[in-house]
Amino acid sequence: MNPGELDPGVEAALAAAGVRHEVLACDPDYADTASFCEHYGFAPEQAANTILVTSKKVDPAVYALCVLLATTKLDVNRTVRALMGVRRASFADADTTRQLTGMMIGGVTPFGVTTAPPYLDAAVVRQPRVVMGGGNRSSKVLLDPQELLKLPGVRVVEGLATAAP
User: Fold this and answer.
1) Where does the pLDDT of residue 2 fall: very low under 50, low under 70, confident under 90, or very high at 90 and above?
2) How would you classify the pairing of strands 22-25 and 139-143?
3) Distances from the Cα of 103 to the Cαs of 71, 88, 150, in angstroms?
4) What Rg value do the Cα atoms of the chain yield, rounded?
5) pLDDT digits over 8-45, tens only?
6) For 46-69, what is each residue's pLDDT tens digit?
7) b/e string for 130-140 if b means 16 or more Cβ within 10 A?
8) Looking at residue 164, what is its pLDDT?
């Protein structure tokens, strides 16, 4: 894979859903949101993070894939936990994220993930454009967040995330 190319599974999922987007090359050293925004001149409210959440003490585990703005904090203890129907939940670790999504932290995107339902914070769709992971640490996807509504099974949730302190 060349720098700036999307993960092939992500590219296939974007095409299958008919999602209009631009691909941006990204130096892997700047793939994490804060570094990316600072290095490439994006405001944090333009960045959408995708976070895998897992249940705790439930077998088999329950997962949720949550998309939220970088300026917000995921409400795991109330909203996400309720959506998952579990008593306890937390962020999945890097290994679990890689196993379930096939993606490394810094490149996770909801496109192409079929192992967890996608939840989209309503604040994301109110932005004119967002940048998010391309399935790897060397690319990002820039799009109108309304395009995220083309994701199979996506659910827009008011209050999925709250303002970050």
Assistant:
1) low
2) antiparallel
3) 22, 24, 21
4) 15
5) 999 999 999 999 999 999 999 999 999 999 999 999 99
6) 999 999 999 998 889 999 999 999
7) bbbbbbbbbbb
8) 84
This prediction's pTM: 0.95
Q: Which of 94, 154, 112 is nearest to 6 (CA)?
A: 112
Q: What is the pLDDT of residue 165?
A: 80
pLDDT of residue 57: 87
d(CA 126, CA 146): 8
CA distances from 24 to 31, 43, 66, 96 (A): 11, 15, 22, 26
For the chain, the DSSP string reads --TTPPPHHHHHHHHHHT---EEEE--GGG-SHHHHHHHHT--GGGBEEEEEEEESS-SS--EEEEEEETTEEE-IIIIIHHHHT-S-EEEPPHHHHHHHHS--TTS--STT--SS-EEEEHHHHTSS-EEEE-SSTTEEEEE-GGGGGGSTT-EEETTSEEE--
